Amino acid sequence: MMSTKRYFALIPAVLPVLFLASCATQTQTNKPVRHGNVQINENQTIVRPAPVIVPPNKVVKPTPVPKASYSSFADWKADFANRAIASGYNSADVQRLLGSASLNQQVISLDSGQPEFSKMPWDYADSAVSDARVNTGRSKFSEQRAYLSTLESRYGVNAEIIAAIWGMESAYGAVTGNSYLPSALASLAYDGRRQAFAESQLLSLITLLQRGDVSWSQLNGSWAGGMGQTQFIPTTWLKEGVDGDNNGHKNPWSTADALASTASYLSNAGWVRGIAPFYEVKLPAGFNYSAVGTKQAVAQWAALGIDTIADVSLDANTPMELWLPAGKDGPALLLSKNFDAIKVYNNSSSYALGVSLLGKAIARQGGLQQSWPRYERPLSTTQVTNLQQRLTRAGYDTQGTDGVIGTNTRKAFQRWQADNGQTPDGFITQRSATSLTAW
Which domains are present in the chain? Predict the structure, then answer.
């Protein structure tokens, strides 16, 4: 019974929740196309007559617009320059930025590329907590301990989580990207698949240059627009950047500014002070797996017989989501609102898990206790497409057939499992989905 469980003690606690707006460019999608903190749905089709240009110092929200045909890269540059200048951007700055930009076909290839096989969650987790990343993280955490503690006190975000994102995004500042941002963003805009997004980044980059946050001599970043030590894209930095070292500028390549901005960004995304992103739990015998993926209060999970593995006490009213990243034979996790907050950086549960595990490793806390079912194998992109098509035709709508396993596909598969004699854990593998993937 609930009253006898020490792990889910009903303690009277009210945790502060910050319901502030997160970055306008970060959206919930089925598949994150990622580099830096960029998430764009893979099956998004962008077409445009004339992309919207907004005046300087405005935060630009990219919107799908009809695609125009350009005869050349120079043709797009001339058109974009005319629209930017007509909307109030400084002509000299616009011409200088575009004049330095060249077409980068590799960026276009990277943007349109898709892996042949999806990764299993343990592959991502293993990479996140590699010996090199953990050891360097502990050293960097020790160097920045006082500052990270100040940020935790100010924003409520766990110091080790700030450090973990730093490690995941740039290897603690060692790898911030070697793509020339004007060329990378201009190439993406000219290609047209994400034209509105890329043009908005260029406009924000001009504003950052004018404001002094970014210098003309320091414009290398990720191929998708990520800048600095925690890889903010220009529109996000324009809105979320913080002057952590109080020198009058918000520079994403500055360690102090980058770490402060990351803490502020997660706080604005709804971080709740005092709770972890996830808690590992054990499920009782005979558990009803249809509850996987639902959100319920801690007291409700306890009433279903779910108990945390570690000795922790949680407020009975705190909402948590049950997630089985590797199905019934892998770890079982209750996810807090903070797990979702991490996903503003990358709308991927595997990424949020990687950050959380790295943070625990940096802080010398224990990792997951339940082992992974490493014998399971992932589906190829073609197999995922077949799965989506067959599920949808059978009445289990996956909301698209893009070859990517996202939330909608997992939920549809979970419903199919429940109706076809499988444990409905939503875990899609070569074994569990055989009858839906083979032609």
Answer: 73-115+177-268 (1.10.8.350), 381-437 (no CATH)
